[in-house]
Design brief:
There is one protein chain. The chain is an alpha/beta fold. Helices cover 40% and strands 24% of the residues. A six-stranded mixed sheet has the order 2-3-1-4-5-6, sandwiched between helices. The longest helix is centred in the C-terminal third of the chain and has 15 residues. It starts with a strand and ends with a helix.
């Protein structure tokens, strides 16, 4: 017996708020009545390394890991990490990507240049791409650190979860002192 499961991947670099975003996603899906499983891979994440979070939801979810080539939605916090994760997606998948670059050590050491055509490369493989100025919109909301919440707002528009469920998930998962700015950042992302 097979069950309809939606597979979401969150990718980026340590320190970008990926794990918090995956927690908020998971909370929203649970509040909406779905079974949810989540898994993370931290590659030296506290030192700016790659972070990948898998979030799967549906009527019954048997594994927390998205099988390669089965991702429905890629939620990218950094361009190069988003490009690297494309093999995890199935044909026709959607991509929401922060138009932001964090040079990896090989670029910082001058060994290789940072690719300048990543958005075009992503779009050539997955035409349904939404580039987001996460940092700019977060700054407009009042705090650059809310870029992950801007991106979450943009992703939320591609999922069939009621507005009040998203608000409830944000209220449950965010510290009270950061809630208002993050609600504004989320709203800015929802307009995209």
């Amino acid at each position: 017996m097979s069950y309809a499961v939606t597979n979401i991947l969150l990718v980026g670099v340590g320190g970008q708020g990926i794990l918090l975003a995956s927690e908020i996603l998971s909370e929203a899906f649970m509040l909406a009545g779905f079974e949810v499983k989540k898994s993370e891979i931290h590659g030296m994440s506290q030192r700016g390394g790659s972070v990948v979070s898998h979030v799967r939801f549906g009527s019954q979810v048997l594994s927390p890991v998205v099988p390669e080539g089965e991702g429905d939605l890629l939620f990218g916090f950094e361009l190069l990490e988003t490009y690297r994760a494309l093999p995890l997606l199935k044909p026709g998948a959607k991509v929401v990507v922060n138009d932001y670059r964090i040079p990896p050590p090989s670029v910082l050491l001058g060994q290789v240049p940072y690719p300048d055509d990543l958005l075009a490369r992503i779009r050539s493989r997955f035409p349904e791409v939404l580039p987001v100025d996460g940092q700019g919109l977060a700054q407009a909301a009042g705090d650059l650190r809310a870029a992950n919440t801007v991106l979450l707002g943009a992703v939320s528009r591609r999922l069939s979860i009621a507005d009040e469920v998203w608000r409830q998930a944000l209220e449950r998962m965010l510290p009270r002192k950061a809630l208002e700015i993050n609600l504004q950042a989320f709203a800015k992302g929802r307009t995209l």
